Write a sequence for this structure.
């Protein structure tokens, strides 16, 4: 089920001051995709989600789910949340402590006054799907965090919604459980082939779960793309920095060759991917991810994109060292193999492939 958001704006007022939560947002969410709204706290992502579900009323614009307009300021249309055919999974799970697993999951069907046999069949089927078969009579609060999250998911799925919405549903889980639940959720949603709109500030969740990511900042959409496009080839400085560790280097374009753009930068001359609308003399910002910078043996003479620097600090993070390397007074973050023989204070040579260095156009 496709969702279309046209020119939606929303203001809040706090202590007499107007806060622009959404500013003229235009967005189409394709059917049967996992579509993630990603951004820092206060960027407007949850407000946009709540406008789609009907828990917030926009100040202007129009929202269409499938072929039905569910909100329009101009046409004076407001379809209440319970009639939009949506389900929502909240950050806090909203599990009722006095109910069993079965009763929690059955609640949406009971409110629709469906037949008991039909409720039993649908709940049993959904609990099997989320791997909670046999837990029907357990008190819901006696389950682990991951199991409670699956109860919340089952309750959202059992009424067979057109769209399912997630508001930071994994943020209360510990790191290990969050990773496991993330994999399960991706598997469930792929099997269902349902439209899912997912809100998070966690870049790992966004990259690993999504078919498409929309990054938001200050109530606006900044960039939309696949996880790989957003991570490896972003157009926007804010997005490149927010989505993961990034070395951002300022410079000026001095030449454009057949394959690469040549930039004079604070660490020396860099060959990088061709950027959009890049001209000789333009000031640019380059982005290089830490994992693409390699420590090389020898003095680093010869070749392109080879630089010498001093190891300022090393932080062991398990599968690598996170190194801060000073190159010509510029600090670079580098992921170094845990087997590398490198110590703080060492002078080392670094290299990176021009294909892994891209120009930010905004």
């Amino acid at each position: 089920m496709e969702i279309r958001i046209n020119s939606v704006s929303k203001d809040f007022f706090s202590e007499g001051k107007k806060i622009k939560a959404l500013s003229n947002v235009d967005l189409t969410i394709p059917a049967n995709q996992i579509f993630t709204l990603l951004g820092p706290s206060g960027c407007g992502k949850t407000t946009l989600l709540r406008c789609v579900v009907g828990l917030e009323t926009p100040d202007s614009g129009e929202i269409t789910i499938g072929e039905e307009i569910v909100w329009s300021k101009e046409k004076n249309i407001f379809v209440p949340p319970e009639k939009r055919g949506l389900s929502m999974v909240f950050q806090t799970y909203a599990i009722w402590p006095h109910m069993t697993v079965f009763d929690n999951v059955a609640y949406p069907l009971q409110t629709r006054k469906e037949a008991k046999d039909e409720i039993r069949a649908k709940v049993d089927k959904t609990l099997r799907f989320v791997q909670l078969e046999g837990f029907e009579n357990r008190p819901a609060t006696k389950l682990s965090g991951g199991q409670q999250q699956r109860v919340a998911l089952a309750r959202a799925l059992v009424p067979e919604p057109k769209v399912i919405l997630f508001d930071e549903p994994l943020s209360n889980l510990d790191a290990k459980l969050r990773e496991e639940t993330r994999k399960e959720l991706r598997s469930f949603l792929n099997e269902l082939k349902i439209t899912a709109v997912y809100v998070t500030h966690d870049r790992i969740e966004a990259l690993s779960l999504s078919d498409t990511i929309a990054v938001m900042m200050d109530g606006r959409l900044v960039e939309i793309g696949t996880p790989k496009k957003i991570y490896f080839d972003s157009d926007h400085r804010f997005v490149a920095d927010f989505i993961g560790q990034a070395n951002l280097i300022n410079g000026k374009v001095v030449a454009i060759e057949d394959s690469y753009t040549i930039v004079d930068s604070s660490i020396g001359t860099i060959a990088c991917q061709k950027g959009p609308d890049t001209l000789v003399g333009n000031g640019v910002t380059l982005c290089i991810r830490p994992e693409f910078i390699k420590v090389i043996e020898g003095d680093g003479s010869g070749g392109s994109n080879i630089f010498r620097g001093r190891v300022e600090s090393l932080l062991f993070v398990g599968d690598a060292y996170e190194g801060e390397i000073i190159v010509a007074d510029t600090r670079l973050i580098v992921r170094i193999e845990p087997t590398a023989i490198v110590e703080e204070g060492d002078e080392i040579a670094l290299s990176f492939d021009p294909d892994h260095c891209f120009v930010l156009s905004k």
Residues 245-360 form a domain with the OB fold (Dihydrolipoamide Acetyltransferase, E2P) fold (CATH 2.40.50.140). The helical segments are 45-53, 101-111, 116-129, 145-157, 175-192, 203-209, 227-232, 237-242. DSSP finds eight helices and 21 strands in the chain.
